[in-house]
Design brief:
Elements lengths: L1 E5 L6 E6 L7 H18 L6 E4 L6 H9 L3 E6 L3 H6 L1 H14 L3 E9 L8 E10 L2 E9 L6 H9 L2 H12 L1
Helix pairs in contact: 1-2
């Protein structure tokens, strides 16, 4: 199963790595980053690198590598009961807005969270959507310190979808 790495602005392919068709481990992702990040820095020494990926990439090993090597990250984060509890206020607020308007509602919030396996608390951005279909919660973890939660989620994280279009082009 190939792992494609694209340049985020132009969509140009940086590299494709053939790997086993299973969820990558943190050490496996770090092994790839240890090769790619120095290459990028050698050719573009002043570029800011932002790693975007789904929740498979959100591991303590990846977080620590990025912090150590000045790589920013915005990674999907799987939900759990603790995150749901931290989203309770935003969820309640979205439900009130939905009941009043009968229009789908989307709210963003942020908080500090530390999973049991993480060495330190991290910035987590939560998105709640309430509609006729119910409540939909999503999370990303990031080491970006500035920018509004909605911007990080919609403009940085969700832009991964554009890359998925490039994947489809490669397949055809």
């Amino acid at each position: 199963m190939p792992l494609h790495i694209y340049e985020g602005q132009s969509g140009k392919l940086i590299t494709t790595i053939l790997r086993p068709g299973r969820r990558p481990s943190g050490p496996e992702i770090v092994m790839i980053l240890k090769r790619v990040v120095p290459y990028l820095r050698r050719h573009w020494p002043h570029v800011r690198i932002i790693l975007r990926g789904d929740s498979h990439f959100s591991t303590p090993d990846v977080h620590e590598f990025c912090d150590t090597h000045k790589v920013y990250f915005v990674l999907g984060q799987g939900g759990n009961s603790r995150l749901t509890a931290l989203m309770a206020h935003a969820t309640a607020q979205a439900r009130v807005f939905y009941r009043a308007s009968h229009e789908p509602q989307r709210l963003f919030t942020q908080f500090r969270y530390q999973a049991d396996t993480w060495a330190e608390p991290r910035r987590v951005i939560g998105k709640v959507e309430v509609s006729a279909e119910g409540v939909n919660l999503r999370y990303v973890v990031t080491n970006l310190r500035s920018s509004q939660p909605s911007f990080i989620y919609t403009e940085i994280y969700c832009s991964r979808g554009r890359m998925e279009g490039f994947l489809k082009n490669h397949k055809t």
